[in-house]
Prior knowledge:
This protein is an alpha+beta fold. The protein has helices spanning about 15-30, 45-50, 75-95; strands at about 5-10, 35-40, 60, 65-70. A 4-stranded mixed β-sheet has the order 2-1-3-4, sandwiched between helices. The chain is globular, with a radius of gyration of 16 Å. The two termini are about 30 Å apart.
Amino acid sequence: MPGIDVLILTQANCGFCDDAKNLFQQLAGEFPLSVRIMDVNSPEGRELAASGGVLFPPGILIGGEPFSYGRPSERKIRKEIERRLSTRRTATASTKPERTYR
């Protein structure tokens, strides 16, 4: 099963950004995650923040979709990761061909 892409938009001297990085480092040991860190002040970071409605860092995008910004909630993030993995498992199971017995 491919991993879930996570992008964390951060900036220097941001305590919540450090919290988000540490949290996703821990979660990447438990779930199939591909985590990238990007400076919110870079050209691409500014564009992603503006298009995703990120008002201040850290901005968290999961699967390319805006998820949250500001203080990260471990409970909320875990719930979203588990939901996405469950959805993937269900979709994978439903696309398997049915066997026909004679």
